[in-house]
Write a structure and sequence with these properties.
Fumarate Reductase Iron-sulfur Protein, Chain B, domain 2; FAD/NAD(P)-binding domain; 3 domains; 21 helices; FAD/NAD-bd_sf; oxidoreductase activity, acting on the CH-NH2 group of donors, NAD or NADP as acceptor; oxidoreductase; amino-acid biosynthesis
Length: 512
Amino acid sequence: MADPQGFLKYRREGAATRPVPLRLLDWNEVYEEFSDEKVQTQARRCMDCGIPFCHDGCPLGNIIPEWNDLVRQGRWREAYDRLHATNNFPEFTGRLCPAPCEGACVLGIGDDPVNIKTVELTIVEHAWKEGWVQPVKPTFFTGQKVAVVGSGPAGMAAAQQLTRAGHAVTVFERADRIGGLMRYGVPEFKMEKKWIDRRIEQMEAEGTVFKTNVSPTGEDLKGFDAIILAIGSTVGRDLPVPGRELEGVYQAMEYLPPANRVGYGDIETSPIDAKDKHVVIIGGGDTGTDCFGTALRQGAKSVHQFDIMPKPPKTRAASTPWPTYPLKLRLASAHEEGEYAVTGEETQELVEKLGLDTREVGSVLGKRGWQVNTVELTGTDGKVSGLKGAECRFGENGLENVPGTDFEMDADLVLLAMGFVSVEESPVVRDLGLEIDGRGRLVRDGQYRAKASAPEFADVPVFVAGDAGRGQSLIVWGISEGRSAAAEADRELMGETALPRPINPTDLAMRA
């Protein structure tokens, strides 16, 4: 620990966001560049704890204090090597992960935690800029063929690990581009997809083969020596209320992908567009927030996001004590944009300087609502036009509406973002004879092995990684499980493995 008083001398600081008037006009990432010098200052806040709980908070087991100290010293190449030893894709987690490591930071007990996520992202972007990120090609080939189904973070991580171990890996993806929900479920303003394309180029140079527009059947998987399923949990939770069948009511994953395709130039306009509409988003999580920011950029008249849960406190809730991931109120960039109005001298000067019409840059009203239960969707001529709701609470008999709190509001577009409940019963699930448990997950044992009952695959080990096995979760868990499943597949094929696997609570519980 080079600066024992660093956490006392420096306050937490993160990258600034671009002005709201500008970012509402495009789909580019909202954050501005954070200088290396500022990142080094943030790294100095790390206390290099005797027991670094951030290790346990991170599902990948990132060795955070070590690369914090290397960054502080300006030893960027060594910091990059230490970071990539545990994380295949820091540029993904550095942008999309909610940072459970920061929730477990010891400094966070009585102060703001270390800005681990910003340090992580700066390290890997520094490495790309300097040309340190190169293909890592295997030193020998095993002659074993592995199929990976699904190209989200779990599938990509498993494929990269197994390719580097010398296996011939083919990744099957049913969409037309690689990336899973990172590609079509995450808006460009949260992560530009050029970062995925950059990684794909590296993986192809290493030897991984990608096949898109393929939803593989059992026939497609014959001839492989092992199979890893990373197909995600993509069945969205539905809303069983009167009016659900009306036109204009969609699942979030019906809405977000075409919006991304507009940005790619695949289509000129989205078939589900929020322009000039009153938008209501049901669900208070990240997916709902992605819909929120997307609707603002499409030019919605108003956007409301309703959460059935109570409003979290501004600081860590007592129900999530340190070092657990804290329940507290978070302001996403999309919510910041929703609260925006063209006021104040600085904003007015910017608008006038750019010659923008204020109606184009933020006169949209966006709000969040808590403890709101949707009772009914109403409409005319088969199209949704309104929503009836009420304030709700959880009582002895479960969810109940609070008497006298009923309300009605305009709603021309209703988006359901209430989470994902199950894997899809796809051809590969059917043909391999896989079992789905009561929580919608593929059944697996303590070594990530699936229970495949199809006779023709009796001698082929099948593994499950990511949301398909653990249920809807975080990107960092996807990468962690992909690495773990790859290590188990390599062990099964070769009798032993040198592939590292994260040591996290799930792995320990599965092995017990």
